């Protein structure tokens, strides 16, 4: 028994020593299969700069961050295991990552941050077009564009972003917009929640479509707005609608707080739920010139308009 205990202690100490040596020699990094053999992944930060860029096109499996800085050139930093390919022609910068094939193995030690492409844009510039397709998250802060087309399978977060034309977002992503302005918004997701605060889309027709997600819109302005969720609640608070708003959910409640009760028309219908408009059990409300039209429909849920 004593020999067994001593042997166990010796093996434990030896294992701890080997583990420490392994960590000192990059044992806390992922072990990846690449080009026919195992390699320690390289997670060093890589840098590149580009002049006179008007358009950005990104195809990646990484998280993407785009933010302003005080410099005069487009600056790209990358922390991850893939290799980035850059093409800069005709004022367009194209960024593609070579996603690794195979598998990775690690002991769960160290700081395994997600692969991230960070693009720094001169704060005084206005880019023409951004096209971004990624399976990672997208974050854009305090920048101006003529056009934005985003496709992501993770969270999309825009803060203080101005778009001259339509803002387009698709994929499986949750969408959060804060202080964003564009001519209109087109969002189409198979599985995503939407949160919009203090934003403006007042020049065109906007639509927000999700197969499975809740929609929450607060203190924002739209010209025309269509909202559809096959499975989710609609929470709409203090929106300014200049022409019309249509909201429909197949399985969920609709709660709306309007800024005003004058010069508008409201029609609401629920197949299996209660309908209340300004405290009354009614399916419609018409007042004044009826400049703005609201239409709400739920197949299975309550509709409350305040």
Brief synopsis:
With 306 residues, the chain is mainly beta. It is built from 1 helix and 27 strands. Residues 54-305 form the DUF4097 domain.
Describe the protein in words.
It comes from Pediococcus pentosaceus (strain ATCC 25745 / CCUG 21536 / LMG 10740 / 183-1w). It holds the Pfam family DUF4097. With 306 residues, the chain is mainly beta. It is built from one helix and 27 strands. The chain has one helix at residues 2-24; strands at 31-34, 37-40, 45-50, 55-60, 63-69, 74-79, 83-89, 92-98, 104-105, 116-122, 127-134, 138-152, 156-163, 167-171, 175-178, 185-189, 194-197, 200-210, 215-218, 221-229, 234-249, 254-258, 264-270, 275-277, 284-287, 292-298, 303-305. A hairpin with a 2-residue loop joins β1 and β2. The chain is flat and about 75 Å long.
Fill in the keyword field for this structure.
306 residues, mainly beta, 2 domains, 10-stranded parallel barrel, 3-stranded antiparallel beta sheet, 1 helix, 27 strands, 57% strand, flat, transmembrane helix, Toastrack_DUF4097
Helix-residue proportion: under 10%
Q: Termini distance?
A: 77 Å
Task: Give the biggest beta sheet.
Answer: 10 strands, parallel, barrel
Globally, the shape reads flat
Q: Biggest sheet, strands in spatial order?
A: 12-13-15-17-19-21-20-18-16-14
The class by helix and strand makeup works out as: mainly beta
Which regions are unreliable across 5 or more consecutive residues at pLDDT < 50?
A: 100-112
